[in-house]
Amino acid sequence: YRNMRAKEFSPRQISVSVFSGAPAYSPVFMQEAGWVAQQSMHDLDDRGFNDFMFRMAQQQFSIIDHSAYYVNGVRLHAAVFQRDSYTRMYYGDYTKVGIEDLQTQKNRELWWVRSIDATRGPDGFDLYSVILHYGADITFAHFGMTASEFGGKTREYNRQGRHLLQVKAHSGLFSGVWSSSVLP
Description:
Elements: H1 2-6, E1 9-19, E2 22-31, E3 38-45, H2 46-58, E4 61-71, E5 74-83, E6 87-94, H3 96-107, E7 111-120, E8 126-134, E9 139-145, H4 147-159, E10 163-170, E11 173-179
């Protein structure tokens, strides 16, 4: 991580998988033209994560990506923050239907999905969260698809000139976000 920052690369996405009870982090870095104020964190429980998000908001940082994961039955969080005021996170125990309803409601207010996360909770249910951004960059998000459904949706959007922004694999299912323009 420090080596990438020294080369002027900044984290843009984070994904966490747990193997044999230990988290494995998979960040995606992007080289920035000029320095962008960013912060990242990992291994915070729900309360610690909420406290960290509050402190970041006070410093005018917004969350740009998030990953929730379970270690020993405790939900932990990893996230990347960037100084801007155009993103808002909705996370919690949303089901597939609940997250799709939230997305429909927020799209009417010009809030579009920028990033998604999905994880299987200890009770065996899939839980979803989204990070929304405000503006004219229309996105299309779909949750809990089989591999063939995901492939079909990708082909459909590619024919329309849209591109895949993010994919999350979870519990043998896929969730994805597609856009017609590149987000910052």
